[in-house]
Design goal:
5 strands; 69% helix; elongated
């Protein structure tokens, strides 16, 4: 909500804007990549090729979540940078608030999806005595989060070498894994939950920043407390990104890095907006004297 857009012609400003929108485009591409990954995983689990509606949030959590975050990011960009103050009408504000409310509802639903996915992993238990993996041809084997392989005559002998075979009976049929794969998957799923909840807290604080800035109240101790809280939250998100990088989940690491960059841009928008508001106050004060 500042008036700098279109007024600055410096090369640095144009380069900054170009880089920012490249990050936004890359995040949009990531939505497609997450969808394709989840589509492949769901296609393997559901032989008929269709996921029950009630299971969509479980099997397409990342793509649904990412899509809503992209929309919410663009709404923040519009409100904190693109739309000038004099164009921000009550009708426009209502429209943005409705869109934002829908995004928040779906993002919260996605958090529920991450939690369900994590808790569902605790349903795995040791297979009954006498059951061999090579007797389960056609069933699926969990290798890591959202990655499965079908048990075949060609790979069952190798899978049988894994320690402590586990099974999970669900609406998808019987799923198998081993104790090491399950431990790694539980770690990834828990980090997904922590990451999703932390991002939700970030946007709540950022939403409060925007509302306070509109009222001219984002200053002093309030501003300092907000900065401290966001520093802690962004540190948790950075730790999650590092974890994904170490565990080899490159798409998750890349996506987390881009989101951190994107919200740094939003934070810079808010700071710039604050500076412009302060400059206007000083001009008005000088004019009145």
């Amino acid at each position: 909500m500042n008036t700098l857009l279109g007024t600055s012609t410096s090369g640095r400003r144009r380069a900054y804007q170009a880089f920012k929108y490249v990050v936004y485009i890359l995040l949009t591409i990531n939505v497609v990549l997450f969808f394709l990954d989840e589509w492949d995983a769901a296609g393997l689990l559901f032989d008929e090729g269709s996921v029950p509606f009630a299971e969509l949030i479980r099997y397409f959590t990342a793509s649904i979540d990412s899509a809503n975050w992209v929309v919410l990011l663009l709404l923040f960009e519009l409100e904190t940078y693109t739309i000038p103050d004099d164009k921000f009408t009550p009708r426009l504000a209502l429209t943005l608030n409705i869109l934002r409310g829908v995004c928040y509802a779906l993002i919260t639903y996605s958090v529920y999806g991450y939690i369900v996915t994590w808790l569902d992993l605790f349903a795995y238990h040791p297979v009954a005595e006498g059951i061999a993996i090579c007797q389960q041809l056609g069933d699926d084997f969990l290798q890591t989060l959202d990655e499965y392989v079908q048990i075949t005559a060609n790979n069952c002998a190798a899978l049988a070498q894994a320690p402590e075979l586990l099974v999970h009976s669900s609406v998808d049929g019987e799923l198998f894994t081993d104790s090491i794969s399950l431990k790694d998957t539980l770690g990834l799923a828990l980090v997904d939950v922590i990451n999703a909840v932390t991002w939700l807290l970030v946007v709540i604080v950022l939403e409060m920043d925007v509302r306070l800035q509109v009222r001219g109240l984002l200053e002093g101790r309030i501003n300092q407390v907000s900065k401290y809280i966001k520093f802690v939250l962004y540190s948790i998100l950075a730790a999650a990104a590092i974890y994904w990088g170490v565990t080899g989940s490159f798409l998750d690491f890349w996506d987390a890095f881009l989101w951190l960059a994107a919200f740094i841009f939003i934070e810079m928008n808010v700071v710039e907006w604050q500076e412009e508001t302060e400059a206007k106050k000083k001009q008005q004060s000088q004019a009145s004297t």
